[in-house]
Amino acid sequence: MSHAPAVLVRVWRDIPKQRLQFEAQFPDTGQAWNLQLPTWRPGRYELGNFAQYLMDVSGVTADGQASRLPKRGLHSWRVAEGVTTVRWTFHADILNAGSTCVEEDLYYVNPVNCFMYDVDRQGLAYEIRLEDLTLDDRWGLATAMPWDDQGGVPTLHARDVQHLMDCPWMASPKLWHEVYREQGVDVHLWIHDCLPSNTNRFVADHVAFTRAQIASFKSFPVDEYHFLYLFPDREVRHGVEHEDSTVIAMGPAARIQSEEGYMEIIGIASH
Q1: CA-to-CA distance for 99 and 67, rounded, in angstroms?
Q2: Of the candidates 85, 31, 35, 91, which has an alpha carbon nearest to the alpha carbon of residue 60?
Q3: Could you report the per-residue pLDDT of 11-70, keeping only the tens digit for each?
Q4: Which residues contact residue 115 at a Cβ distance below 8 angstroms, ignoring those fewer than 6 apart?
Q5: Which domains does the chain have, with CATH numbers?
Q6: Is 43 left (phi over 0), alpha (psi -120 to 50) or beta?
Q7: Which of 192, 196, 230, 245 could form a disulfide with 226 if both were Cys (CB 3.0 to 4.6 A apart)?
Q8: What's the pTM?
């Protein structure tokens, strides 16, 4: 059985330096092509200068020789004919609902910050191998993007560029997970690290507003939805909604223990 062409991306973490290292293999076009980094900020109608966090963008020839790619603009590079493999490094030390951050106990990625694509082939599917992530009894993976385990390597699957850019993920050994079903929709709640003081209430409040929204709109646009919560020990208040997931970051963590902070979270989630 033949498979449609796809971009194979391998990703590694450099935790001490808070960096991600990428190697992407694109199907051969037989001609020169343009490599692009997104310029839009997730959840906002404004440009995002993600190129400032990018380093060492290079192309690899068939004989394994790597050389820096010439830039066409702030967020774009020209790739020579015959070059199908591209490597780059991304500095990942910002934590909010639309960023990418690598820490000892958190692997959090918004692909729109750091993934590259071929401008003229945005319909290509993506297969993303998280090469140094082992999912076991400790580490879990939260995302709306389909994934499977390929020989012990968690592998994410995006149907095209837009799908990829709209699907953040986070992995952590401190990941709380609960799922409920409402009117045929599976809703997943994921929390990194700090938990609300009453998780039963947290789930019940999500069930209540989900039920009210479905009753009001008469339907739900997807069969499965994911809430990804980040409650760090630093000041942040930010939420980004995607097609089938939402990321909400609020800190410092002690804030969610108060009634005021808790209701603020529920207000953001249910908006």
Answers
A1: 28
A2: 85
A3: 999 999 999 999 999 999 999 999 999 998 766 667 889 999 999 999 998 888 899 999
A4: 9, 22, 37, 38, 126, 164, 165
A5: 6-172 (2.60.40.3650), 175-269 (1.10.390.10)
A6: left
A7: 245
A8: 0.95
